[in-house]
Amino acid sequence: MEASGIVKKRVALVDPDKVGASLRAIVMIKTGTHSADWIREFQTVLSTLPEVVGAHGMTGDLDYILSVRLANMPGYDDFYKRLTLRISVSDMSASLVMEDIKDTTVVLL
């Protein structure tokens, strides 16, 4: 499956609590623009923020959802400030995950 490109990469799954990243924030973003330049800049900014473990373009009311791993609330505040200083958004809010009921990377074949 690796030779055919089905398996893209092998990774280790790390326990977030043991590496100081026990807080997961789901960050919801609306942008005022959808220009190619803004999207390129957004992707560049996200690539420099290791806390972002998932980023998804959305249909519907939201433009993007980020999954962000942090140590604590001050860590989220720091992340928020660093992101919003580098990229303009029209609205950004977050929900904090209280419990992971299902969290997997498995894709059924």
Structure, explained:
A 4-stranded antiparallel β-sheet has the order 2-3-1-4. 24% of the residues lie in helices and 25% in strands. The chain contains 2 helices and 4 strands. A hairpin with a 6-residue loop joins strand 2 and strand 3. The model has no long low-confidence stretch (mean pLDDT 95). By secondary structure, the chain is α+β, with helices and mostly antiparallel strands.
What are the main properties of this structure?
single chain, 109 residues, alpha+beta, four-stranded antiparallel β-sheet
Summarize the structure.
This protein is α+β, with helices and mostly antiparallel strands and 109 residues long. The protein is built from two helices and four strands; from the N terminus they run βαββαβ. It starts with 22 loop residues before the first strand and ends in a 13-residue tail after the last strand.
